[in-house]
């Protein structure tokens, strides 16, 4: 809790940094700014300078002229990536300027401008003045504009999705770099003193006790009475806020546990003298016991799949509630009770949909492969992304695992950074499991050994292995033995092979991209899994074929990673049926 407070202060003192978004925006009084936004394409980022585009400067007199204006410009739809909206932006990775105007009548409420996500950098201007910036494409951020809003307002956002070595992800990554204002934009009104944030979940390991906290924001935040009620369960609990406006919660509760079989959620209502907010929250416990994962104290096998936040058939970023339903329904259709959201926090619609559908989730920050862990400021950037992810989704019962990274190379800077992130995640949320996906395992012929030392700080170990694709089998899968230095659950967080849907042929030649080859890899993988006593879950790479410009094999890939069990149009490949049967035999 103290850490959370310091973050806020840190962000505040770095000036013009965006704030972590208030929790549960959907439960507040909002005005949507979604829709058509005017735009200017600026490949040279030329407008990003003094008196630049953000100022919306106009000629002062007849001698003067200004070489930018939005007045006659066309529009892009927000939310949504810009690459799929204009052919000339298909592979575009630089600056696009967005403008949206809105009228506002002050009414004594506080006013916040909240972005669901902007990929990758956002510089935000209001009425010609810069109000702040945000780095990171997959988490929400906000600015308080109570004192800045006028009767007629103009928001300008410089959106830049240029890759960089110091970025998260870094310059190279195996997915499509969709840029833009990719998620909802809202104006949020609150009372002067309001319920800014809260954490209401079962206490770690206690399915009969709720624990958490409520944080008020406002001059009168200290010494306030906060009431948390769960009407359906006859619960009403009151607590007072301390000097920092924080009330700690702990109370007995008899609640039906949330699970994939019964995704039960309760209306939880929080009130103070001046504010009230509510949302649907599920309650469940998640723990490990040696190499076993326990959901509500019962052993669970995580029947998973990896999903990118993309609607392949539309060649676009997924961003709506129906997109979330579409993606999760396809996972459930394959028999999944678990999804790894790769490799970044997906939209809030996705995690709330998982809550209602009963799908367990692994959520991850995009610390993918070649992160510059030793570059100045990197730890703070990583920590901010982790904080923003946990801040947004900590009340989601579906989320059982926070993941810190994917396939990063062991070494002092990386190890140190991940250990710090693990400690931070645990301090922010002691109720969930902490993981990372590793690919540095030791192969000696048919023995595979897990020894990544960062695992000591984790609850669950994820391993990405591509036997049969990037690494040829040295024997049938059933001959492989896995060992580990850690008595912890292993999730095979990635495995698989490529195939072009509808393309058939030999099962023994990888470079034919046949369904039969992919199917055979899955058969061997599943045979291997039978011999891994500490295996607690599996996540095939990947549910749908997805776009990745680095995939340039012109017959079969053409800019697509073809490791999907489904094509981008949802066509089932032979391997899909192998996984479906495997998960069905696993039973509930
Ligand atoms: C990696 C990585 C994925 C990537 C996949 C692949 O393991 O984590 O992001 O897409 O392998 O190469 O297909």
TrEMBL record:
Residues 194-284 form the Glycoside hydrolase family 2 immunoglobulin-like beta-sandwich domain. One of its GO terms (biological process) is carbohydrate metabolic process. Its EC number is 3.2.1.31. Residues 32-191 form the Glycosyl hydrolases family 2 sugar binding domain. The keyword Signal applies. Keywords: Glycosidase, Hydrolase, Signal. Pfam families: Glyco_hydro_2, Glyco_hydro_2_C, Glyco_hydro_2_N. The keyword Cell cycle does not apply. GO terms for molecular function: beta-glucuronidase activity; carbohydrate binding. It comes from the Bacteria. Residues 1-18 form the signal peptide. Residues 290-585 form the Glycoside hydrolase family 2 catalytic domain. InterPro entries: Beta-gal/glucu_dom_sf (IPR036156), Galactose-bd-like_sf (IPR008979), GH (IPR017853), Glyco_hydro_2 (IPR006101), Glyco_hydro_2_AS (IPR023232), Glyco_hydro_2_cat (IPR006103), Glyco_hydro_2_N (IPR006104), Ig-like_fold (IPR013783). Belongs to the glycosyl hydrolase 2 family. PANTHER family: BETA-GLUCURONIDASE. This is Beta-glucuronidase. It comes from Deminuibacter soli.
């Amino acid at each position: 809790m103290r850490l959370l407070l310091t973050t806020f202060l840190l962000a505040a003192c770095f000036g013009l940094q965006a704030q972590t978004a208030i929790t549960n925006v959907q439960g507040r009084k909002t005005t949507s700014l979604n829709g058509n936004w005017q735009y200017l394409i600026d490949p040279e980022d030329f407008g990003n300078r003094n008196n630049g585009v953000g100022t919306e400067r106009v000629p002062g007199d007849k001698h003067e002229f200004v070489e930018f204006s939005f007045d006659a410009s066309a529009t892009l739809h927000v939310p949504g990536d810009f690459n799929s909206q204009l052919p000339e932006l298909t592979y575009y990775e630089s600056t696009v300027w967005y403008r949206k105007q809105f009228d506002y009548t002050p009414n004594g409420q506080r006013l916040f401008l909240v972005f669901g996500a902007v990929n990758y950098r956002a510089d935000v201007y209001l009425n010609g003045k810069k109000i702040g910036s945000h780095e990171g494409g997959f988490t929400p951020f906000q600015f308080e504009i109570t004192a800045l809003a006028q009767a007629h307002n103009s928001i300008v956002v410089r959106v830049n999705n240029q890759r960089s070595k110091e970025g998260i992800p870094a310059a190279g990554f195996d997915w499509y770099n969709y840029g833009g204002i990719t998620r909802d934009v809202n104006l949020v009104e609150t009372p002067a003193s309001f319920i800014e944030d809260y954490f209401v979940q079962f206490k770690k390991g206690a399915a009969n006790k709720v624990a958490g906290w409520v944080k008020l924001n406002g001059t009168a935040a200290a010494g306030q009475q906060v009431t948390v009620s769960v009407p359906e369960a006859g619960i009403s609990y009151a607590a007072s806020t301390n000097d920092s406006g924080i009330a700690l919660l702990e109370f007995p509760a008899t609640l039906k546990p949330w699970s994939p079989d019964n995704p039960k959620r309760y209306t939880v209502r929080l009130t103070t003298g001046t504010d009230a907010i509510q949302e649907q929250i599920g309650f469940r416990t998640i723990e490990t016991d040696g190499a076993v994962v326990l959901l509500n104290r019962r052993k669970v096998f995580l029947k998973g799949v990896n999903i990118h936040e993309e609607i392949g058939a539309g060649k676009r970023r997924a961003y709506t509630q129906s997109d979330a339903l579409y993606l999760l329904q396809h996972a459930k259709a394959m028999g999944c009770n678990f999804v790894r959201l790769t490799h970044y926090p997906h939209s809030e619609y996705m995690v709330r949909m998982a809550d209602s559908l009963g799908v367990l989730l692994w959520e991850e920050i995009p610390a993918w492969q070649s992160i510059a862990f030793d570059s100045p400021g990197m730890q703070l950037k990583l920590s901010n992304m982790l904080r923003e992810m946990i801040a947004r989704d900590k009340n989601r019962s579906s989320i059982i695992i926070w993941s810190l990274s994917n396939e990063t190379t062991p070494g002092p800077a990386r190890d140190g950074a991940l250990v710090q992130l693990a400690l931070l995640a645990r301090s922010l949320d002691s109720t969930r499991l902490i993981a990372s996906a590793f690919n540095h395992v030791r192969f000696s012929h048919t023995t595979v050994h897990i020894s990544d030392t960062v695992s000591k700080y984790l609850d669950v170990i994820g391993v990405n292995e591509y036997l049969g694709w990037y690494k040829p089998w040295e024997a049938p899968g059933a001959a492989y033995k896995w060992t580990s230095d850690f008595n912890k659950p292993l999730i095979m967080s990635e495995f698989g092979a490529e195939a072009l849907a509808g393309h058939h042929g030999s099962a023994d030649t990888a470079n034919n991209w046949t369904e039969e080859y992919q199917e055979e890899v899955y058969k061997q993988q599943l045979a291997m899994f039978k011999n891994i006593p500490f295996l607690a879950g599996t996540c095939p790479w990947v549910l749908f074929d997805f776009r990745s410009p680095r995939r340039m094999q012109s017959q079969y890939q053409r800019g697509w990673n073809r490791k999907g069990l489904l094509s981008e149009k949802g066509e089932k490949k032979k391997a899909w049926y192998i996984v479906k049967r495997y998960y069905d035999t696993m039973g509930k």
